[in-house]
Design goal:
The complex is a heterotrimer of chains A (274), B (297) and C (418).
Chain A (H helix, E strand, L loop, with lengths): L2 H29 L3 H4 L14 H9 L2 H33 L5 H11 L8 H10 L6 H25 L3 H9 L4 H12 L1 H17 L2 H6 L8 H6 L9 H21 L1 H13 L1
Helix pairs in contact in A: 1-13, 3-13, 4-7, 4-10, 5-7, 7-10, 8-9, 10-14
Chain B lengths: L6 H36 L1 E2 L9 E2 L3 H7 L2 H33 L5 H13 L2 H12 L5 H8 L13 H29 L3 H9 L4 H12 L1 H16 L3 H6 L11 H10 L4 H29 L1
Antiparallel strand pairs in B: 1-2
Chain C lengths: L1 H14 L6 E8 L6 H12 L3 E8 L3 H13 L7 E5 H9 L12 H5 L3 H4 L3 E2 L2 E2 L1 E14 H6 L8 H15 L5 E5 L5 H13 L16 H15 L13 H9 L3 E7 L3 H5 L9 E4 L13 E10 L6 H11 L2 H11 L18 H10 L2 E2 L3 H4 L3 H16 L5 H16 L2
Parallel strand pairs in C: 1-2, 1-3, 7-8, 10-11
Antiparallel strand pairs in C: 3-10, 4-5, 6-8, 6-9, 6-10
The chains are: A mainly alpha (274), B mainly alpha (297), C alpha/beta (418).
Chain lengths: 274, 297, 418
């Protein structure tokens, strides 16, 4: 390889990295400015003076913004656990237990997931109200599980399909039941699939908007994307608060993505690889 | 139920049913039941609180829909948005994937940079961009005005044509990474020998790309296209947080229009008809992709 | 806060033997009525230890809060027990049966104390469905220092506003300084704006006979003036087309506009210590067009408090509602937070003497005009949507003013005759 393309390569890489991070960098810079600095002309590119006031204000004056992050965390974690448990079993049944019409079921699951989420809202709202599930973690966890189970089932079913069937056959020869095979052989062998799927479902649930918007009507129960989106007032759009809250809300996702980037990439690509 | 002879098969069948029941229960409750309710609602007139009992009106709401300029506008907006953003995402995605497939230092950071826009909530991404687009205090206009490129601020989100462009940019920024990662996996699964053979035939890198890489990427590209088109056709929080469908209705997607009809104008039946049509569009689009790509094989 | 109040209330309820602990849920934004909400709840809790009030802080974006109420009320949710409604929803919600009639729950004297023209907004079939909490309206803010510098009088007419804007912007020669800013994004505030212009020209939503006449010559002329301010005279920034009230306020506060037309709330931030225009601005009534000095051009708004018909505690809710909107509470909100009272007697109170700002707001309300929400009831959201859309079409020059208003008229005729 010659030198010239290498230079071009690095230039392109740096450009992509800069474009990817630009909105976040600008947001972080905004959150470190004073209110006057944000609206100043000529514009301030770097905070002058630099201030942590917006962060202190959030912790002291608007603790609900921190609560939103906690709510997102609880819902996303709950959804991930339930979706992996249910989806794992269903995926195994569909890929390994020789179910008749498994293919039809898989397509059916995919087809219902194509429906626009907005259309689910009126009906879900009423059902949840009657069952007392509005403004509960349980309610939104179930709703998100329903939304992301099709993805989970497809991901895990295709992962199970890559396992060599000999192991399970041998276990069956030893007289093991299907449930024990699933529990003590298939799950341990499929950890990477579960981790990758779980991470993606976690991110999906953390980011989900329409259902979280409508099913959590109390301010204290809102998730981070919804709470921050609704934070602007009747008259005002306080960018200093919104930028700061957004920075706080994306830090957990940034950390998770950074630590688990290999698994997430693996999961995303496995889903499409078939 | 006829060929279930051996006890093992019966046990396998029962386990399968048991394993799939929780998933089906949740999917039926959260997806199937509301979808069926939407379909039923779209053919009738009723109020959701039961004060007006359901009466069948046939295709009345669909007829209204066909004559409603704003519905056609939102369908058009959705299709334009999809039609503009998907090819751009695909091109960017292929470019990024090819880039990431090269060997260079700090690849971890580059991959994280690609993954990051995808991992963040669209609602919050959109707020970040909205802030950069801000006419009076945004980064883009600050740079454009100070460098003297323009002497009056550009109204990124307030001009009909620009607003759609601005929205497409946010979508491409966010989702090219998703395309890139899926295509990258495809790239990495192409056996090296093929390229070596190509090089012996004296192929240029461009020829290699066109004649070896691209045909083998068809599968992953198809999957990425379907997934992304479904998302684009349902786009909701992007216009919701960026423009609220404006200016006028230049960025009002089908989902946003349906949401407004259902929750602002409180017309559940008419709103249900919109989402049913939207579903049909998504379904048709998916079929179209599968058929075209299958025919080309 | 919520927890301490409930805890106090619960503790008190446990010690007071015959008391029943009742829980009421109140939905109102946390910033709209400012600190008054917390203060009122505390006062009520002190007097009524057996009732605990849970404050559900709903969004301060009216459209979002509205959707939230709509979903809850259509599904017959028993909470919130008491909730705040925008004046423009009051008629619609009453008509849909989403507000409990108050005449049976409160005595007549309590209801009759309120400003009758405000009560009209929530009166359906002769029954009052919600009590006005506070009123607001749009005012015309101007930079005293700039007017003085160029020897200009405070503009009273739109023609004078235009001339003054041109004098100031040409004189300052700063491309970052605009003449006039307001809220022309496609929001309810745009319709308020249009009503101010249209009424200021002797036009309005209705004609003299009370028929919808949005495409009258006076309205076309006024709307054309709005379009020309933006596209021909260019004294407004292009960003006015996506400006919400606070975007306009920010421009004005940063010294980048000579004139500003928005609601009351901007007075506090504009006069704050760190505001660059503090002490350099004042306000007057919304301008009118030459020859229409009697025009009612101050578009009014405000918030009401009503009771959910599905509430399990309507009696207790009514008691709380009466206390929350009572003279004593409104007086404190007026004196401390500049919230315009809805009980006319309060303006005469001695404690109000020192509040010149509120007195001046009140004077502008003498020229008040309300939106056609009472007349269109449950159709108001669509009425407003049609107007917002067609005015936006005209402002974006997607249609000529005449086409846009003719289209609006046709759609309104069809809608209102449904």
């Amino acid at each position: 390889m010659t030198k010239r393309p290498r230079f071009g390569l690095y230039a392109l890489v740096i450009l992509s990295v800069v474009i990817s991070f630009l909105p976040i960098i600008w947001l972080v810079l905004t959150s470190l400015k004073t209110t006057e600095g944000i609206y100043a002309w000529p514009p301030q590119y770097l905070p002058d003076p630099f201030t942590l006031k917006n962060y202190i204000n959030i912790f002291t004056n608007s603790p609900e913004l921190l609560l939103y992050v906690l709510n997102s965390f609880i819902v996303a974690l709950g959804c991930t656990v339930v979706a992996l448990s249910f989806g794992g079993m269903a995926g195994y049944a569909l890929s390994r237990l020789g179910m008749r019409r498994a293919g039809v079921l898989m397509v059916f699951i995919l087809a219902v997931s194509m429906f626009p989420p907005v259309s689910l809202l009126p009906s879900l709202f009423q059902t949840f109200l009657n069952l007392g599930l509005l403004n509960t973690y349980t309610g939104l966890i179930i709703a998100h599980t329903g939304l992301f189970l099709p993805f989970t089932v497809w991901m895990l079913a295709s992962y199970f399909a890559t396992l060599p069937p000999e192991i399970e056959e041998a276990a069956r020869m030893d007289g093991m039941g299907f449930f024990r095979i699933f529990w003590s052989i298939v799950i341990p062998l499929s950890w990477p699939g579960f981790v990758a799927t779980g991470l993606i479902v976690f991110i999906f649930s953390w980011n989900e908007f329409p259902l979280a918007l409508v099913l959590m009507t109390q301010n204290a129960m809102r998730t981070a994307p919804v709470g921050i989106s609704l934070y602007p007032g009747e008259y005002a759009f306080p960018w200093e608060t919104i930028s700061t809250a957004t920075v706080i809300a994306i830090v957990p996702i940034l950390i998770i993505t950074a630590i688990f980037q290999k698994q997430i990439v693996g999961g995303l690509t496995a889903g499409a690889g078939k | 139920m006829t060929n279930m002879t051996s006890p093992l098969d019966r046990r396998r069948h029962l386990t399968g049913m048991a394993f799939i029941t929780p998933t089906m229960a949740v999917i039926i409750a959260i997806l199937v039941y509301p979808i069926l309710q939407s379909i039923v609602l779209s053919f009738g007139q009723s109020s959701i609180d039961g004060s007006e009992p359901y009466s069948f009106v046939g295709l009345k709401h669909y007829a209204t829909l066909a004559g409603n300029e704003r519905f056609w506008n939102s369908l058009w907006v959705t299709l334009v948005f999809t039609g503009l953003s998907i090819p751009l995402e695909l091109a960017m995605g292929i470019g990024l994937a090819v880039l990431l497939n090269e060997h260079f230092r700090f690849k971890g950071i580059a991959r994280l940079a690609v993954l990051f826009p995808w991992a963040l909530p669209t609602a919050l991404n959109t707020l970040m961009w909205r802030w950069m687009y801000n006419t009076d205090y945004g980064l883009f206009n600050a740079a454009a005005l100070q460098s003297g490129i323009v002497d009056r601020p550009i109204n990124w989100l307030g001009d009909e044509t620009l607003a759609m462009g601005s929205m497409v940019v946010v979508a491409v920024w966010k989702t090219s990474s998703f395309m890139a990662l899926i295509i990258l996996a495809g790239l990495q699964s192409i056996p090296r020998e093929l390229y070596e053979a190509g090089r012996m035939d004296g192929m240029t890198r461009w020829q290699e790309f066109r004649e070896i890489t691209l045909p083998l990427l068809k599968g992953p590209i198809l999957v990425a296209l379907i997934v992304r088109s479904m998302d684009a056709l349902r786009t909701f929080e992007l216009p919701f947080n960026l423009t609220d469908g404006g200016p006028v209705t230049a960025t009002e997607s089908l989902s946003l229009y349906a949401y407004k009809v259902i929750f602002d104008f409180i017309e559940f039946n008419y709103g249900a008809a919109i989402v049913v049509v939207q579903f049909l569009v998504i379904f048709a689009m998916s079929l179209l992709y599968i058929l075209t790509l299958r025919n080309k094989d | 806060m919520k927890f301490t109040i409930s805890a106090l209330a619960t503790a008190a309820a446990l010690t007071a033997l015959p008391g029943f602990a009742q829980e009421l849920v109140l939905s109102i934004g946390s910033r709209g009525y400012g600190p008054a909400v917390e203060r009122n709840i505390e006062r009520y809790a002190a007097e009524n230890p057996d009732v605990s009030i849970e404050w559900n802080k709903v969004s301060d974006v009216p459209g979002e809060t509205r959707k939230l109420y709509v979903t809850g009320l259509t599904a017959k949710s028993p909470t919130p027990d008491i909730y705040a409604v925008d004046v423009i929803w009051a008629g619609e919600f009453a008509q849909r049966g989403w507000l409990e009639p108050l005449n049976g729950l409160l005595d007549e004297a309590t209801i009759d104390a309120f400003n009758p023209s405000l009560l009209a907004a929530s009166t359906v079939d002769g029954e009052v469905h919600a009590l006005p909490l506070y009123a607001d309206g749009i005012h015309f803010f101007y930079r005293t220092d700039l007017l003085e510098k160029y020897g200009l009088d405070v503009p009273q007419t739109w023609e004078e506003v235009l001339a003054a804007s041109q004098t100031i912007t040409e004189g300052e020669g700063n491309p970052q300084l605009y003449g006039f800013v307001s809220m022309w994004a496609k929001i309810e505030g745009l319709f308020m704006n249009w009503l101010a212009f249209a009424n200021g020209n002797g036009g309005g939503f209705y004609d003299a006979e009370g028929n919808v006449a949005v495409n009258s010559p006076a309205n076309i002329e006024a709307t054309q003036f709005m379009v020309d301010l933006l596209h021909e005279h260019r004294i407004t920034p292009d960003s006015i087309l996506n400006a919400r009230p606070d975007d306009a306020r920010t421009l004005f506060q940063q010294g980048r506009a000579a004139f500003l037309m928005v609601q009351d709330f901007v007075h506090a931030p504009l006069s704050a210590d760190n505001s660059p225009v503090a002490g350099k601005f004042d306000f007057t009534r919304v301008p009118y067009f030459e020859g229409h000095e009697d025009a009612n051009s101050t578009t009014m708004g405000g918030w009401f408090l009503g009771i959910n018909p599905n509430s399990d505690n309507k009696e207790a809710a009514a008691d709380f509602l009466a206390h929350f909107t009572a003279q004593e509470q409104q007086l404190t909100a007026a004196v401390e937070d500049n919230r315009a009272p809805t009980i006319p007697g309060i303006y005469d109170n001695d404690a109000m003497k020192g509040n010149a700002v509120l007195a001046k707001f009140g004077k502008n309300y003498d020229y008040g005009v309300v939106r056609p929400s009472a007349g269109s009831g449950s159709k108001y959201p669509r009425v407003s949507e049609i107007m917002q859309l067609e005015i936006t079409n005209a402002l974006h020059r997607q249609k000529t003013v005449e086409e846009a208003l003719n289209d609006a008229q046709a759609q309104l005729d069809a809608l209102l005759s449904e």
